[in-house]
Please model this.
Amino acid sequence: MKSRRDFIKNSALSLSSLALLESMPIESLGAYRKTVAPSDRLNIGLIGVKNQGYNNLRAFLKVKDVHVLGLCDVDDEQLDRRQQDVVKLGESKPTLYKDYRKMLENKDIDAILVASPDHWHCLQLCDSLSAGKHVYVEKPVANSIGEAKTMIKATEASGKIVQVNQWQRSQQHFKDAIAFVHSGKLGTIINTKTWMYRGTDPLPIVANSPVPAGVDYAMWLGPAMKRDFNKNRFHYEFRWFWDYAGGLMCDWGVHLMDIMLWGMGANEPKSVSATGGKRIFPDDARETPDYLNVTYDFGNFSNTWEHYMGTGAGQYGRGHGIAFIGTKGTLVVNRSGWEVIAENGRMESVPLALKSDVGLDLHAQNFVDVIKSGKKEDLACPIYAGARVAINAHMGNMAHRTGEKIHWNAEKGVFAQKAANKLIKPTYHNGFVYPKF
Model:
């Protein structure tokens, strides 16, 4: 008789079962999942249950073999709400945790979904791997270059499966667009563009306040610098403060530049320069730039990243996207679809091909399938790809923050500029220790 661990490693979901699941609403999946024997289930735990964390969980619960055993968050209100939501989806009531380390002690949990703020990703991934769990980690994989490289080492040492939630890689229209780029039909590509025009409002400044009831704020801060509680730094808005995240560059930039790096087969740039700052909402609460224009020199081609917070009208008529500019034509792709704009007489244009699938659902399924098969080469977004684009995104921010054109020595893993080198590795606070691998 196969053990549950043997099943998880060796079995695979049949195509007929997958087709049935895709046609079934998530609210109806509970009874279907209960037909799977306990010995054949993949049990998961979620760290960070609000916003994208819950979106990820819903995607995983569309997979027949997956069950959720634990939910972890520092906010009692969010935990209680999500526990009720999970029960409504047909699951048994999961155990609630305020400290993720307690959840990692549960030997029945096979995989951990990390959806906490960016400054927690490295430590929680490393601890989860050390506890023998597979990991599905949110983008960006880390809040620094040093952490991203540490996470690669931790993954390699563990032998476990790690998927980064850059789910665009699982969407067919992105795969088709990249295949076209790789075909050579665009001619020589010496320039790419990546952009996000968010069209948001300013974030009003608010005073510090008492910690909300039921919130373990010390645990939320974790390795970040100790500060008084401010609601602008909590939950979703944390991404606009350097202590915890990297602004729009690390929020959207990692998704879009990942596709660019994939298409160009590129890794780390030779140099990076940036202009921007707080130009659109100079007096709002955010620390990270609301406008940023970054140029990456990869040697054989260059890439530009541009973001605006105050307008949603972007390039090529798209608020966000990636453009591969070749001598014969330009391929433009975003989450809606892709097309090729031909240079006159050099090739035929390719009409817009719209998206036809749900990338997040496919990405979750891919993670489960690879855990079962053990074929790491089938991962849609392994740790290497996630770390690579996180490093590029952080370099763009570092060029902005230092005010210098920074030059990277990939072999030594350092910059030629001292100010940039000081930002490679963070200092951990509050008794938390930087992981060593």
Remarks:
- Confidence is low (pLDDT under 50) at residues 1-23.
- The chain has two domains: 4-169+360-383, 170-356+387-421.
- The CA atoms of residues 171 and 357 lie 6 Å apart.
- The radius of gyration is 22 Å.
